């Protein structure tokens, strides 16, 4: 009898705060417009911090430099329309956001970015793409920071690109 191999979906997120407001993206989904941290999937051949920088640039048009890990999160979500059951393993980073890159546009499905206060983020929970949106921001607000050297990417990972 064959054994089923469980594979959580690895994602990264950028938790970006300026003057008490958090940067979120509004994304078009099959359930309508949803709010999310700038986030996405880890791609083959990249490290976790690199993936967070790439995703933030793609979704906000601004370069992002990860400076600390906010947390590691595990969540199981069932897609409301398709009933697909997916477990996500999210690595959330905080860091510095640069200015928008001239001529760069948002990657689909991002419609726009929004700067929201913690109170506004809490009040919009029904529109969050995942329960991790608020949890990551709450952890950032609580001052949770872990050094990036906590993470190690073995060179064999980047060999996938060669």
UniProtKB/TrEMBL annotation:
<keyword id="KW-0378">Hydrolase</keyword>
<dbReference type="InterPro" id="IPR015797">
    <property type="entry name" value="NUDIX_hydrolase-like_dom_sf"/>
</dbReference>
<dbReference type="GO" id="GO:0016787">
    <property type="term" value="F:hydrolase activity"/>
</dbReference>
<protein>
    <submittedName>
        <fullName>NUDIX hydrolase</fullName>
    </submittedName>
</protein>
<dbReference type="InterPro" id="IPR000086">
    <property type="entry name" value="NUDIX_hydrolase_dom"/>
</dbReference>
<dbReference type="Pfam" id="PF00293">
    <property type="entry name" value="NUDIX"/>
</dbReference>
<feature type="domain" description="Nudix hydrolase">
    <location>
        <begin position="5"/>
        <end position="138"/>
    </location>
</feature>
